[in-house]
């Protein structure tokens, strides 16, 4: 194959690749709301208002956390290893 023919084939491949690549959509920036830090202690008054929870896995910038939903104070990010957390989780599971 001659050099000019190789160059033509290469140019055609670049054009085809360019057409295909332009149709590929890049993901848009997704902002996540997650716990980036946790508390090991929260006031008992707030603990008494907890109505539900979710478990959050660590996936940067998010940290491993238990997110408690309270009646009046919204969401609270807590350390899953805090001493009082397993007891509260059991209480909530019994209520369900």
TrEMBL record:
SUPFAM superfamilies: Interleukin 8-like chemokines. Keywords: Cytokine, Signal. Residues 1-21 form the signal peptide. GO terms for biological process: immune response. GO terms for molecular function: chemokine activity. It comes from Anguilla anguilla. This is Chemokine interleukin-8-like domain-containing protein. The keyword Lyase does not apply. Residues 31-92 form the Chemokine interleukin-8-like domain. The keyword Signal applies. PANTHER family: CHEMOKINE (C-C MOTIF) LIGAND 34A, DUPLICATE 4-RELATED (PTHR12015:SF165), SMALL INDUCIBLE CYTOKINE A (PTHR12015). GO terms for cellular component: extracellular space. It comes from the Eukaryota.
